[in-house]
Amino acid sequence: MRPSEDPDLQSILFRLFLSMYLITVLGNLLIILAVSSDSHLHTPMYFFLTNLSLADTGFISTTVPKMIVDIQTHSRFIFSVGCLTQMSPFPFFGCMDYMLLTVMAYDQFVAIYHSLHYPDIMNSHLSDFLILVSFLLSLLDFQLHNLMILKL
Q1: Which of 53, 68, 114, 147 could covalently link to 28 via disulfide, CB atoms 3.0 to 4.6 Å apart?
Q2: Which residues does the UniProt record annotate as the domain G-protein coupled receptors family 1 profile (predicted)?
Q3: Alpha-carbon distance 112 to 46, whole Å?
C-alpha cells in the first residue's frame, strides 16, 4: 500500500488541508471586512490589500476544494473539461497576485520617496487605473496560458 492510500494519512491530510483552506479564506474575508468597515483604512494601500485578498481567495479556491473532495472520496480521476475548468483561473489569479504586489510596491515607493506629493500622485483615479491594468494584464496572461494548453 502506498502512503497516499493509507486511510489514517488521508484523514490527517483532509483535516490539514481543510483547516488551512478555511483559515486562509476567513483571514482574507476578515481583511476585506476590516478595510471596508473602517473609514480610516480607505487609502490606496488598503484598497490594494483588499484586492490582493480577493485574488488570494480566488487563487486558493481554484484547486484546494477539489483536492479536499478527492482526498475524502479517495478519487484520483478528473475529466479533461474539469481539469481545464479548474486550471483556467489558476494562472489568472496567480498573475493577479504578482501584479497587485508590484502595484503595492510602487505605492510604497511613492509613499517613501515622494511623501509630500503622495496624495497628489496616488489618488483614487490612479489606484483604480492600476487595478484595472493589473486585471487586464492578468486576463491577457490567462488567455495566453489557455491557448498554449488547448494546443496540447
Answers
A1: 53
A2: 27-152
A3: 16
Residue 39: pLDDT band (50, 70, 90) is: very high
Task: Residue count of the chain, please give it.
Answer: 152
- Joined grid coordinates for residue 99: 501584479
Return all residues near 64 (Cβ < 8 A) that are at least 6 apart.
17, 20, 21
d(CA 105, CA 96): 14
CA distance 23 to 49: 17
Question: Most confidently modeled of 8-12, 97-101, 148-152?
Answer: 97-101
C-alpha span between 34 and 95 (Å, rounded): 25
Q: Which residues contact 63 (CB under 8 A, 6 or more apart)?
A: 86, 87, 90
